[in-house]
Amino acid sequence: MARRIVGLLTDYGVIDTYVGELKAALLSRNPELTIVDITHSVSPFNILEGAFLLYLSYRHFPVDTIFLVVVDPGVGTDRRGVALKTDRYWFVAPDNGVAYPAAYEDRIISTYMIDQSRLRTYGGETFHGRDIFAPVAAMISMGELDLLIEIDPNSLVKLQLPSPIINKNEIEATILHVDNFGNAVLNVSRKSFGHLIDRLVGETIDVSIGRRRYRARLVEAYGDEKRSRVVALWGGTGFLEVSVVEGSFAKRSGAKPGMRMKIRWH
Amino acid sequence: MARRIVGLLTDYGVIDTYVGELKAALLSRNPELTIVDITHSVSPFNILEGAFLLYLSYRHFPVDTIFLVVVDPGVGTDRRGVALKTDRYWFVAPDNGVAYPAAYEDRIISTYMIDQSRLRTYGGETFHGRDIFAPVAAMISMGELDLLIEIDPNSLVKLQLPSPIINKNEIEATILHVDNFGNAVLNVSRKSFGHLIDRLVGETIDVSIGRRRYRARLVEAYGDEKRSRVVALWGGTGFLEVSVVEGSFAKRSGAKPGMRMKIRWH
Amino acid sequence: MARRIVGLLTDYGVIDTYVGELKAALLSRNPELTIVDITHSVSPFNILEGAFLLYLSYRHFPVDTIFLVVVDPGVGTDRRGVALKTDRYWFVAPDNGVAYPAAYEDRIISTYMIDQSRLRTYGGETFHGRDIFAPVAAMISMGELDLLIEIDPNSLVKLQLPSPIINKNEIEATILHVDNFGNAVLNVSRKSFGHLIDRLVGETIDVSIGRRRYRARLVEAYGDEKRSRVVALWGGTGFLEVSVVEGSFAKRSGAKPGMRMKIRWH
Questions:
Q1: C246 and B CB contact within 8 Å
Q2: Chain A contact for C163, CB < 8 A?
Q3: Does B74 touch chain C (CB under 8 A)?
Q4: What are φ and ψ of residue C85, in 5° steps?
Q5: Domain spans of chain A?
Q6: Coil, strand, or helix at residue C128?
């Protein structure tokens, strides 16, 4: 059998030993796993950001990947832990919506809550990633579903990524993420809005954040415009991105996740 | 045989290629290893911090894990490299105490020094992690102990984590670590001090750093107190932590590793 | 067969999900790969820095390692993707020189361009790392060279690391890298300049950046000089490094990659 893959997405950061302990817990149960870090740099406790980053990335993983997703401000309270079997994947996460947009898109087939009482925690009640979710993910990788109790999928906490507002010749979008290159990733997917945007390629549009306004050419690739110019394009994320060629749009504009951005054309 | 796990803990950071070269050296000797990063963000040359982070995390790894621990201000001098076989694990490290608290707790069974003269260094004498310790860890994973010379365990450099001072209704503690969430981890373990602290759960205690004083409820989980309140609780580390619910105690208080903190109750 | 190793070097950073998606793409084609992160912290779009870090590190990897190197300001333009088979390794990268110094040193045996038209991109044209280079690296690991078209090696973009200028009793060097410890790594290799430098070990030399001047002892290891003194030595990189013992030369001097540094002796 092919080695089973576990993809990790957390807000643990990479300074502490938490990610290492998570992997230790996984490998203690199933030493044959292949573990892939998606990111551990979700802003602490930011469920929406975690949900979006998972939504962007999960689709590129091989079938049967198990996603272990921990952004969990409610750790130790009575919020449930859940395991979602979808068309192609498994998602193990707290029931706060962080895995919902990805799992929903892939079509949820079975919904389980985790019987936490049968797992031992170490120290206090604050590290369910290591003590609850990792053991469950490892057990799923070995076909052991004993700790899972099937529940009504309608009882899940549902989280939806914000939708853009479409006006005539204008989109009011939200910045969902600012990446390492300073690109602002908007909540405008090619899948849903390609019919509006694709025909504008080559043209120049207006982009504004608060009172700052930029002229941006809509291009197919960074190399289609000169260095240091503002451009808009479909990123490898599948979402519309606003960028500076070989520069940082975030540095130039002060763009941050959560900010509104208006895109206007003629 | 199950794939052998090597856990890495260093002060190399993740900007440079050093960690990659360490892994290259391990895999050159044993391509079947599973390598787990514990952390590479120990403050440069900070042996005590490295020792504490290893002490927190080693216990969660599977039996037979080999820990490769490099915080090594004395690299290239005549400080020895050592390999410690303990009850469940191996530790490979410079003989400066960085692996001592963890290895001591797990019970040291055999103590070896590394015959460095039989390993080739590349460039100068500054990268023993890659050129000495990684090859030795890989050789141990394959049962080859030829480069190890048994020595008197009493000759090891012993490093002890600082102990808190216990007064009547008061503990004078030291902050051993500040984590990604801004939690201050104190040198007060549940194992040693649970009998003092556990009976205070639900009550409010005084917490002070220098002249700053906070009222903190002692809780079982973050969710037991309102957002932005200061709490104290047993962390997943097994040590007492002072936190702000969905916030950062370090940002609020200026807490840093090494600072003293007083905890008082009535 | 031993598990095949893929070494990754990019400017993607570790905040985003890009590295995770790269690994997902690799494992989708070949789930048996062992993936090693060399670094993802190359300064965005800095081809020279990427080339140097690859040049420093590639040599420590096992024979048959495939290097996947993506620093790619020209993504989506008509710059080619290339795959270089060398004496011991494979290099997969954009044809902008980033893999050239390493591949050239290891001796290029076969030179291929990638037929990108036969690979599907997701979203826009901006993530060739995931959509083009990773699939090709995975296919090479399985012996599938169908997407590779042999080309004239003379048509490759050649990039050369800058050479130092040697005067009488003086070297004008360039800082190629500043590492996690604040060491300044110069473009002065032991291989090429050992005959000039080795005989100075133990002596004190002059080191200057702009108007700042330091006296530095040339030592074999950090431990040969007192704490906080400036030293010069052959680093584990194989290049001359200027350091502060248990401190940071970069913090003291303001040294940054690309700066010129003069070394003078008597």
A1: yes
A2: no
A3: yes
A4: -90, 125
A5: 5-155, 165-264
A6: helix
Interchain contact B246–A (C-beta under 8 A): yes
Assess contact for C32 and A195: CB atoms under 8 A: no
C223 touches chain B (CB under 8 A): yes
**Both structure tokens of B83:** 């390999």
What pLDDT score was predicted for residue A192?
Answer: 93
Q: Which residues of A70-108 are buried (b: 16+ CB within 10 A; e: fewer)?
A: bbbbbbbeebbbbbbbbeebbbbbbbbbbbbbbbbebeb
Touching chains, B (3+ CB pairs < 8 A): A, C
User: What phi and psi values does residue A54 have, to the nearest 5 degrees?
Assistant: -65, -45
B79 has a chain C CB within 8 A of its CB:
yes
- Determine the distance in angstroms separating the CA of C11 from the nearest CA of chain A, rounded to an integer: 9
Residue C114 clears pLDDT 80, i.e. is over it: yes
Contact A222 C126 (CB under 8 A): yes
On average, the pLDDT of chain C sits at: 95
Q: In chain C, count of helices (H) and strands (E)?
A: 7, 15
The one-letter code for the residue type at A110 is S
Min CA distance, C123 vs chain A (Å)? Answer: 4
Dist CA C72 CA C94 (whole Å) = 6
User: What is the dotted CATH code of the domain comprising A165-264?
Assistant: 2.40.30.90
pLDDT tens profile A156-190? 999 999 999 999 899 999 999 999 999 999 999 99
- The subunits that touch chain C, with at least 3 C-beta pairs less than 8 Å apart, are A, B
Q: Do B61 and A24 touch (CB under 8 A)?
A: yes
Residue pair B171/B188 in contact (Cβ under 8 Å)? The answer is yes
Read off the tokens for C166.
């040697």
Give residue C76's pLDDT: 80
C113 neighbors C151 (Cβ within 8 angstroms): yes
Distance of CA B155 to the CA centre of its chain: 22
CATH class of the domain whose range is B5-155: alpha beta
Query: Quick check: A46 contacting C, CB < 8 Å?
Result: no
Between CA C173 and CA C162 the distance in angstroms is 9
**Rounded to the nearest 5°, which phi and psi values hold at B207?**
-125, 125
Residue B9 pLDDT > 60, yes or no?
yes
Q: Please give the Cα distance from C204 to C184 (Å, whole number).
A: 17
Q: What average pLDDT does range B81-103 have in this prediction?
A: 98
| Amino acid found at B175 | I
CB A65 within 8 A of CB A89: yes
Distance CA A164, CA C166 (A): 61
pLDDT single digits (tens) B170-191: 999 999 999 999 999 999 999 9
Cα–Cα distance, C132 to C114 (Å, whole number): 8
pLDDT tens per residue, range B53-85: 999 999 999 999 999 999 998 888 888 999 999
Q: Do A124 and B222 touch (CB under 8 A)?
A: no
- Looking at residue C43, its amino acid is S
Distance CA A216, CA A203 (A): 8
Nearest CA in chain A to B239: A123
For C4, the closest chain B residue by CA position comes to: B31
Q: Verify whether the Cβ–Cβ distance A31 to B56 is below 8 Å.
A: no
